[in-house]
Structure formats: C-alpha cells, structure tokens
Amino acid sequence: MKKIITITLFCFCTAQAFSQEDVGKIKWTLEACIKHAFENNISIKQSQLDIEGADINKSDAIGNFLPSLNINASNNWNSGLTQDVVTGVLVNQVTRNFSTGGTVGINIFSGLQNWRTLQRAKLSQLASQYSLEQMEDDIALFVANSYLQVLVSKQTLQVLEEQNKITQQQIEQTEALIEAGTIPQGDILELQATNADEQQQIIVAKNDVKISLISLAQALLIDDYENFEIADESYDIPITDIVNRDIDDIIEEAKRERYEVKVAEKNVEIAEKNVEIARGAYYPTLQGFFNYNTRESDRERVGFGGVDPDNPTRQIGFVESTGDPVVTQNFLSVALDPLPFIDQLWRNDGITYGVQLNIPVFNGFATRNNVKRRQIDLERSKNQLQQAELDLEADVYQAYVDAQGAAKAYEAAVKSVEAQQNAYDFAKERFDVGMSNAFDLSQSKTRLTNAQNQMVQAKYDYIFRIKVLELFFGERPVE
C-alpha cells in the first residue's frame, strides 16, 4: 500500500522501536505506536475482513464462468401392495430400488451478467483496499495526535522543572545575601512563594503527562498503564514549502491521492455495473446440460419356461386375406433372480443432453423496477462522490489555514521567548545588584515560563499541521 503513513508522520529522526528504561518500563516510539495500532485496532481489522469478503466475492464471480457438476444417488425401499412380475397380481412385498446419475451444466449466455459481476467484484476489491488505507490514515493521525499530546505534556513539565531549579538557586543565593546582611529578610518571601507556585504547577504537569500517556495507551488498546512510556525523542520543524504552495494545486492533488475520494469514485463505478447487471435480465439466457443416469433393483425378473402343456399355443393375430388365425407357442412365465448389481447399472444406464433457452417476456415489472432501483443507487453514489470532493476541499482549506496560522503562531512564540528571556536576564541582573526586588524578578520569570510553554505547544502544533497538509498533498515520509 502507498504508505505506511506511519506518519511516521513525524519520524524525521531514527530511533529504536523499543528500549528499556532503568525502571523496566517499555518505551514506545511513534512508529511503534502506529504499527501496534495497525495490528490491533478493531476498525482496521473490520476493514481487513471487508477485503477478505471482496476476495471471496471475486472468487464467486469467477466461478460463474465454470461448468457445474452435480452427482446424485438414492436407495429406497417400497413396502406394500405391488404387482407381482409373473402373475400380475397385487401382493404385499418389499422391493428396493437404487438410482444414481450426474449432471453437467454450463452457462452459455446470460446477458453478460457474469462478466459484469466479475468486473464489479474487482471494483469492490479496490474500494475495500482504499477503505482500509483511509482507515489506516485516520488511525495514524489519531495516534500521532495522542502521541503529540504526551510530548507537549512532557516538555511542559521539563520547562517547569528547569525553571524551578533556577528559582531554588535564587533562593539559595538570596539566603546567602540575607545572612551576609546585604538584603533584608523579606526579599526571600516572594521567591519562596514563586517556588511553591512552581512546585504546584509541576505536580499538575506530572498529572497531565500521566493522563496523556493513559489516553495514548487506550488508543492503542494497551491496559498496562503503569509500564507504558514513550521514547525520549525530539522533533524539529521540518523543512518544507507546503504552506507556500498554491491552495488549488493542493486540492487537485488531494482529489487524486486521498482515499475518501477514491472510494467514492469506485462506488460510482460499482453502481454503474449494478445497473448493467440489472439490465442483463432483459436478455434471453442459454444453458447447456448433459446428464448420465442409471438404476438397479432387487425385484425379480420375468423369464420364460417350457411350453404350457395345457395351452401350448396362443393367437397373436390373423391373416387379413383369409381370416385364418396366426398362433405361436405359449411359454410359461417364471420368476428369475435379479441381475448382478454391476450388470444392471451397465444395462439400465442412459444419457440426456441438450440446451435450454429462456426468454423473459413478462415478470410483473420486476426487472424494470430493479433497473430503476439500481439507477437511483447510481445517482446516490454520484451525489456521495460530489459530497466527498466538497468535504475534501473544505478539509484542505481548513488544513491550509491551520498550517499557516500555526506557522505564524510558532514564529510569534519564538520571538516571545526571546523577548521574555532578554527581559528576565535584565531583571536578574538588576536583582543581583540590588536594583529590583524579588517580586519583579518572579513576575519576569513567570512570563518567561509561560512563553516557553506556549512555544512548545506552538512547535508541535505546527509540526502536526504541516504533516496533515502534506498528507493531503500526497507527501508521505514512508512509502
């Protein structure tokens, strides 16, 4: 398949699929998460079953071109009044009869329905494959977004922990200055309050990391939350000009590449074949057949004994010119044992062969109405194709705007961090020489921390928006 969009949607760096932490937790890369989702997601499994069903339907369609062969055999007993073969008198007796045969049938012509059914089966195979690939794209995006949330939470926690280390260092420096009598005791209170606030934020950030990991594990159908962890990977902004491409080019490429449109197109072609198959019922059908059959019975046979002494002759006619009777010897009838089983099968066999032509004349409007229903289905599938194209166009526009907005947001976040870093460095210098108090320094540091957290979120949001837009344009890191 043309992907695995294993999104690696973000896999710009190489990492092992799994590694072990000192504490024994399994560390998952993004690629490993997506691969696991492909193998275990229920929706993907359902789509794979749809493909297997389409393969079976194709096999059925091919089988319609092949001759049919059916063999039958029966053995039955008849108990009751049956005619005696010698006397002709009805007597109570039990007789057994065995019969067997085989029939070969072949479809010579059926209004091209078999051929069009095979074409429809091939189209259904493609539609099922496209549906699976679309499902994999959707699952990969969902997993990547969940993975992204974990990265954002972890880096947010990292920023808070690093800033708190700086705060604790400032507290130590301030305590030393207080002991030296350089600054008053009250200057440390603001730093201690800042430290307490940062400690609280760290606790919340740790909970966010845990919750985001649980959400990712649930998306992967993994229930061992305690031992689930992602790999320590970092991602850089990809070098791409996708946001500078013409939006119309992206839309046209998306219509050629995206599976939702391909599925809708195949559904239109399938609906067209259904109309052709329904119309095939207007045409005559011609079948050929060949049948071989034979039988065997345990009933006694009629045989001839000697001449009847009491009535040695019997009349079988008369001479037309003279009227004289024509007689022949009158033999006695006797009961003989049935012939051996194999002998009877050879003697009693027979064959039947021929062709059968069926011409539809009138069937209560069933064929005509069925054609109309298939035509309605065709129009419905065309409308669905048009809707899929409109939805895709809207999605591309949204992704395009989101990517451009994310680029500007990230650029602004970077500038904000630079500005806040400069402001903090200046505030720290003033604080170190006693020209400002701890409150001013704490406020500057808080603004820097917020700016760094916003930059982390803007960075990963920008990466994700770029990859979504590239996906619409048909660019996939892994083919």
TrEMBL record:
Coiled coil: 247-281
Gene Ontology CC entries for this record: cell outer membrane; efflux pump complex
Any Pfam family matching the protein: OEP
InterPro entries: OMP_efflux, TolC-like
Localization of this protein: Cell outer membrane
Matching PANTHER family: OUTER MEMBRANE PROTEIN TOLC (PTHR30026:SF20)
Protein's name according to its UniProt entry: TolC family protein
Species for this entry: Mesohalobacter halotolerans
UniProt lineage: Bacteria, Pseudomonadati, Bacteroidota, Flavobacteriia, Flavobacteriales
